[in-house]
Amino acid sequence: MEVMKRYQTTPEFEVGHLCTYEGTVGTFRIFIQNYAKRAEPIQKLTRKEAPFKWGEEQEKAMEDLKDAVRNAPCLRSLDYNIDTDIKLSVDTSYIAIGWYISQQDAEDAKKWWYARFGSTLLSPREARYSQPKRELFGLMRALDENKYWLIGCRRLVVETDAQYIKGMLNNPEEGPNATINRWIEAILMYHFELRHVAGKTFAADGLSRRVRQAEDPDPEPWDHSYEDHDGLRGYSKPNSEDADPLDFEDFKRDIDTRGGYLLTEVKPSEGETLEENVLEQELKALWFLEKQVSEVAEVQKQYVNVEMLPDDALKTDPEVEIEYDEGRRANWARKFDERLPKIKLWLQGPLTRPEGVDPKDFGKWVRECSHFFEKDGKLYRRQGEFPQIVVQKQHRMYMMRAAHDALGHRGAWATVQFLTKRFWWPDLEGDVAWYCRTCHVCQLRTKMLLKIPPKVTETPSVFQVLHADVMHMTPASNGCKYIVHGRCALTSWAEGKPLREDNGVSIGAWLLDIITRWGCMREIVTDNGPSFEKATAWLQKKYGIKGIKISPYNSQANGRVERPHYDIRDMLFKATGGKTHQWFWYFPHVLWADRITARKRFGVSPFFILTGAEPVVPLDIQEATWLVEPPNGPLTTAELIGQRAKALAKHRDLVEEMRKKVDKEKRDRVAKYEEENAATIKDYRFKRGDLVLMRNTAIEKSLNKKMKSRYLGPLVVVSRNRGGAYILAEMDGTVLQWPAAAFRVIPYQARRKIELPPNIHEFVDISSKALSKMRESSEEGIVDDFAFRGMPETSRNTSD
């Protein structure tokens, strides 16, 4: 009972300490008469939002409870003559090891008699142990301090809430080092059953959190010697609903991450701060480890030339030192930075209240300062096993550069994990996230693929828009190696022609054949731009046909014709019976079959859309189906013209109906696309002068793309054309030749503010006339039928 007797209030006494005291005394509440009434002055201080005011009433109540515990009828010495369990309950925190010994009653198994209580304070080095190592150390110390009470007990039960003990004791030879193995051997000298209980109901928890008292003696030295053991006597769990202890394999790498007792204190050299020295030493140790495991001398030589730390001038030379921008930081972080010098000063003399701290807030100030300590002129923050060095503001950019740039440009989470094991400052996570987000190299390699807001484009009429491409055919047939293949954007009517050469004249002749039957198209969508540009130039030169627009290159914009490539090839293979060198003679039949095949999106065939009648095939004539309707007799000229006029009127209505159906399908697709990508669609709407990155689509299909930049930049937004694409310029004012499609442009996060001229026209290297021409362009650079929302064709804003 000496532990309870020495329990006193101190200036740092607070609600947390009071709860630990109550948790220990509460173990005896059934043996203390009028416990609730006697403990009321103390318990009311622990209620929510109750002011903590320790006075004479509370002091008397504490002394009264101490006397009640010392005189409790449940206290008695152990009786080794009765065959009942003797229980050692142990709990270890970062403050102390708490334990008590009790014995089960011989007649009533639910009644326990208490014999001894104890609380052993941990040294600063022991307090920094990992949780598994600390729990094992606490059990060993508790057994060692009570060895004269417990050694030889055949019904000893060790009760603990630690999840790691069972796994370590069942694997005594697999500890990470000799120290851990010696501790396990010392524990297994005792013959006991391990019993796991829930931490929230564990009475020893309060003793393990008892702060050091003035009358506490220094810990006595203890012996590590041990003899042979028989292992665990058994394992039990009183409450089956409690979580099971962890398996040894789940945590064995976390027992001792720094090698047992091996702790190295690094002292800075002259002119160097401690935090930089610690980081440098750890990086050097990492490098030497890599050098030892490497077997190739050339690889070792390469490692020697790698700079593992940034240049020291970045933290000592004001001219090249990286600026630490505090304007972007949170208010609470800036205020915390202002308090850090006061905390350091107060820790040097904590007996007086610092200036500017209200007496009502002094308890809060003490609690905040308790998370820090000062050593050798440096401020440290208590955190787990190893304290963190508090980094000064002028060195934080250097630390982030050393942890991010010099260690492979890892992400924000990995960089935070690396730094927080060693250093701390207010809002470290936010600073690292900003640093990684504004890293130029990381932005060039980002995997971000932008999804833009879609809208339904205009639905063209018959053959106003032609999707075209050239198929390479193997083997050649009748000297033809290619098929030029085109589809009407509205009806999906197929046009095609075998070609001997893929050149502008051959494609131009094919386009002329389409124009003479369906009229001149206004746009050709293709990903084979140069050949079709030569074809349109040939048409203009030979026949004077002008105004056909070739769409800008977009590998994803021509699926309307590229997907049917497979169908054409498949039908040719089947039609030839495997004799693929004969495909030239079967191509017209395949093309006709494709035209009269119904499409799901329409419910009818392209032939029906264009002619307003079902196609008549040889089978209809042979079987005399209802599609073949011979005239009843001779028709007059007026009757024949009337039937033709009626068919033409019906055809016009049919084409309009198909346009409405296609338009509705587009709207449904757009609505579905918006619903599926509601969380990822972004419309940045960049303004003139914004800094951006442009997606490097030129390397996306190359075989060596993995080691190239995914984005290019930074670039400056000059303007936006009528089609929604961005006109961009290099940082020296050189304007890119082609506008960049909106889905290729993302924001560039600049670490420092870049000043640009107020008048962007003075900055770019292009004439006003040429820039106006680029603005008037309708090129959108989009995918399939999607464009930008909110930019109608007749009222686009080109001021930006």
Automatic annotation (TrEMBL):
Domain Integrase catalytic: 456-623
Listed InterPro entries: DNA/RNA_pol_sf (IPR043502), Integrase_cat-core (IPR001584), Integrase_H2C2 (IPR041588), Retrovirus_Pol_polyprotein (IPR050951), Rev_trsase/Diguanyl_cyclase (IPR043128), RNaseH-like_sf (IPR012337), RNaseH_sf (IPR036397), RT_RNaseH_2 (IPR041577)
PROSITE patterns for the chain: INTEGRASE (PS50994)
Region entry Disordered, spans: 210-246
Pfam families per the UniProt record, alphabetical: Integrase_H2C2, RT_RNaseH_2
One GO CC term, this protein: nucleus
Keyword entries, A-Z: Multifunctional enzyme, RNA-binding
Nucleotide-binding listed as a keyword: no
Name of the protein in question: Integrase catalytic domain-containing protein
Organism: Candolleomyces aberdarensis
